[in-house]
Amino acid sequence: MNAYRQYAYVGPHAIRELLKQSTSRNAIRKPDDILAWISATKPTFGQNNTIVVTFIVDMNQTLWIADQRSEHVVCAAGQDVLSAGEITFAIQDQHIEVTAIANQSTGYCPEPESWPIIEQIFTQLGLSHPSNFTTEFIFRRCNSCRTINIVKDGWFECAVCQAPLSQKWNFDEGEAVR
């Protein structure tokens, strides 16, 4: 058993329907797995030979990646995760570096505190990486209207109904979206 928080899917039920479709996700157990996924899927590269991918870390502490337009719940095959978000890889020849990473996933709403499992995996893979999420998102569920909110500038108020939001992560208090 690990000491990491487990995140269940809390996003819209309609998104779960995408689990019925096939997806191109890939387990990353060594850096060459990233290159193999790129070769197989032919994703679009951005500036400075970078690629942004959707990621999740499953309950076995395995990193999975998929196309950036993929839903996290699909990348996770519908299962709980230890972290989720987006990673930007810079690829130069066969060298891979993590240049940016965010916990941006409104389907799982992982906390910035999910960073240690990511750092552990990057270290095990031998990937150069930032010292923390380069963009951190704070998610809260509105207890009044049940909307998933992103807290901005420390403003803990629901964007829909203006009710106060919990100061602590509250997605373990029941399902967020009907």
Description:
This protein is 17% helix and 25% strand. It has 178 residues and is of the alpha+beta class. The chain folds into two domains: 13-125, no CATH class; 137-178, no CATH class. The chain has a five-stranded antiparallel sheet with strand order 1-3-2-4-5. The longest helix is centred in the first third of the chain and has 11 residues, at 31-41. The chain starts with 12 loop residues before the first helix and ends in a 27-residue tail after the last strand. The mean pLDDT is 93.
Keywords summarizing the entry:
globular, about 180 residues, 7 strands, alpha+beta, 2 domains, 4 helices, two-stranded antiparallel ribbon
